[in-house]
């Protein structure tokens, strides 16, 4: 394009090309929407940052076309254990246990390898126009479009592009966040840590804890896997900067090897990176202004101890994608996008708090304070960590005070099923729209004809658990993911949204009619015409 062309109009402009942007581009393109991405750097960021994806994100990535690639770039997490200076366990988070989505709670990834996979996926779509080496200089909007001006870093040439929406996934120093007038709320966590990744030499097995926080006040230390690439398993260490140390001292390669020496030596492995990061806790007060939105680190930054930094950003993308899809197709009102911040901000905020809780456990460089912490864990007087959040606001079945009713806002389960003579993952066999999942055929039989008609008009499919999957809508819960979940939450029915969260639930067949009526009211409020089919 040269300078004098009329600015091109695409569906969505994306600023930044990290994992959130890559995945959002794929999510939109696979629904046929045009996307233009602008990224200042012409090379991918070479250093791994995140190392974790949780079960929900694994399910999302599988659902958007990467199911077959994921096993090659992830590995199951071991239990995540927290120790004091004497290696007595303070806290254990079982990341290895079976999750409601199937597979372990957490998987470890080598971020550059996973991002290369995301990039390959994005480049399969003609709908995605990737502009690397193009720095976004300014962002603006009118009532009809969003606009950005970008400068080709190599040639200096500038161009202006328009999109119906513009998403800033442009990192912690987001230009788009400034453009929407958002202010970062600082939750007050700040600590410098040296982050080191090591690739053990071939054939070397290191004698190190599988995944641990070593809460030694003399040197708080993280020891975790760092993913797999081409069959080689990486490891990560993180060392907190002590009050008497300078950042420069800590960042020396010699210092890094000295800190690693109890665990690994140059004879055993290659140090592939070492970099000092300041872990902080920030959340933007505003995630949307008209056609401009932010996602990922632009909207929230958290300490890494819960492994949720990238997951939170990918959740933003997933939440945005089904709403943007409907709006861009003319099947929902733009007001649906208001539910993005309503849903994602409180969730991300709780994850920031949870990450800070963990950060405050380990970031104690004072021996007396650490002894008090240890004692509080041993005598049980410690405040337990907050629970992992669900959705609490937005497009959910709520009471008159705006509180979620029943199981509304929980993440739904996922598993292997049999349906229509085929066995496979539920998402692959059932599709991704609004779906009413019933506990049994008896619940289906007890539904009112009016509810069945309303559901059909809204494009909501109905499926039910059965012993025999020959009837339409019947499926066999092969690995017992759905039945036990529904029994645990006492659900006769759960109404699942396109992003796998429960819009609402019914404890009995009789409660399905008000649930369906509530969904119909939300359909009217957001002018939803038809639910997604795939
Ligand atoms: O994936 C991330 O962003 C961070 C992962 C992680 C996991 C465990 C301990 C840490 O300090 C970081």
From TrEMBL:
Q: Which SUPFAM superfamilies match?
A: FAD/NAD(P)-binding domain
Q: Name one GO biological process term.
A: 3-(3-hydroxy)phenylpropionate catabolic process
InterPro entries referenced in this protein's UniProt entry, alphabetically? FAD-bd (IPR002938), FAD/NAD-bd_sf (IPR036188), PheA/TfdB_FAD_monoxygenase (IPR050631)
Tell me the ranges covered by the FAD-binding domain, including all copies. 10-354
Annotated GO molecular function terms are:
3-(3-hydroxyphenyl)propionate hydroxylase activity; FAD binding
On whether Ubl conjugation is a keyword of this UniProt record, the answer is no
Which key words are in the record?
Oxidoreductase
NCBIfam families found in the cross-reference section: PRK06183.1-3 (NF004829)
Q: Which PANTHER family match?
A: 3-(3-HYDROXY-PHENYL)PROPIONATE/3-HYDROXYCINNAMIC ACID HYDROXYLASE, FAD-BINDING MONOOXYGENASE
Q: What is this protein called?
A: Bifunctional 3-(3-hydroxy-phenyl)propionate/3-hydroxycinnamic acid hydroxylase
Originating organism:
Duganella guangzhouensis
């Amino acid at each position: 394009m040269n300078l004098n062309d009329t600015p091109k109009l695409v569906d969505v402009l994306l600023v930044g090309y990290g994992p959130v942007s890559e995945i959002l581009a794929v999510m939109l393109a696979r629904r046929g929407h045009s996307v233009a991405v602008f990224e200042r750097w012409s090379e991918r960021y070479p250093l791994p940052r995140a190392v974790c994806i949780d079960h929900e994100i694994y399910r999302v990535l599988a659902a958007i076309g990467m199911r077959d690639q994921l096993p090659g770039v992830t590995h199951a997490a071991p239990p995540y254990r927290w120790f004091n200076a004497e290696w007595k366990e303070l806290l254990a988070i079982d990341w290895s246990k079976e999750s409601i989505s199937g597979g372990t709670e957490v998987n470890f990834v080598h971020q550059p390898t996973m991002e290369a996979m995301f990039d390959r996926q994005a480049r399969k779509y003609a709908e995605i126009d990737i502009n690397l080496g193009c720095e976004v200089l300014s962002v603006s909007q009118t009532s009809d479009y969003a606009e950005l001006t970008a400068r080709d870093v190599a040639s200096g040439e500038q161009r202006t592009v328009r999109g119906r929406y513009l998403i800033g996934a442009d990192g912690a120093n987001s230009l788009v966040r400034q453009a929407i007038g958002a202010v970062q709320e600082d939750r007050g966590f700040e600590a410098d840590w040296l982050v080191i990744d090591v690739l053990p030499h071939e054939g070397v097995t290191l004698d190190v804890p599988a995944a641990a926080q070593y809460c030694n006040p003399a040197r708080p230390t993280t020891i975790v896997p760092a993913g797999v690439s081409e069959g080689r398993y990486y490891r990560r260490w993180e060392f907190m900067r002590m009050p008497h140390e300078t950042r420069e001292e800590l960042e020396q390669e010699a210092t890094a090897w000295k800190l690693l020496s109890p665990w690994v030596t140059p004879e055993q492995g290659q140090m592939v990176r070492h970099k000092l990061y300041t872990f902080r806790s920030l959340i933007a007060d505003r995630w949307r202004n008209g056609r401009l939105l932010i996602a990922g680190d632009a909207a929230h930054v958290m300490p890494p101890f819960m492994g949720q930094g990238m997951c939170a950003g990918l959740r933003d993308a997933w939440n945005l994608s089904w709403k943007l899809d409907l709006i861009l197709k003319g099947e929902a009102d733009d007001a649906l996008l208001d539910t993005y911040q309503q849903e994602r901000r409180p969730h991300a905020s709780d994850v920031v708090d949870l990450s800070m809780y963990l950060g405050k456990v380990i970031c104690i460089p004072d021996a007396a304070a650490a002894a008090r912490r240890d004692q509080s864990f041993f005598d049980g007087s410690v405040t337990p960590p907050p629970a992992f959040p669900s959705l609490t606001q937005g497009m959910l079945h709520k009471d008159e005070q705006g509180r979620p009713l029943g199981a509304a806002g929980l993440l739904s389960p996922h598993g292997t099923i049999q349906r229509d003579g085929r066995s496979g993952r539920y998402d692959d066999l059932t599709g991704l729209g609004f779906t009413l999942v019933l506990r049994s055929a008896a619940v289906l039989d007890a539904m009112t004809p009016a509810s069945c008609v309303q559901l059909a008009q809204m494009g909501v499919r109905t499926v039910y658990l059965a012993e025999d999957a020959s009837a339409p809508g019947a499926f066999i819960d092969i690995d017992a993911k759905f039945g036990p979940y529904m029994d645990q939450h006492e659900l006769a029915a759960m109404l699942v949204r396109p992003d796998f969260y429960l819009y609402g639930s019914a404890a009995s067949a009789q409660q399905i009619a008000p649930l369906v009526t509530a969904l119909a009211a939300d359909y009217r409020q957001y002018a939803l015409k038809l639910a997604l089919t795939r």
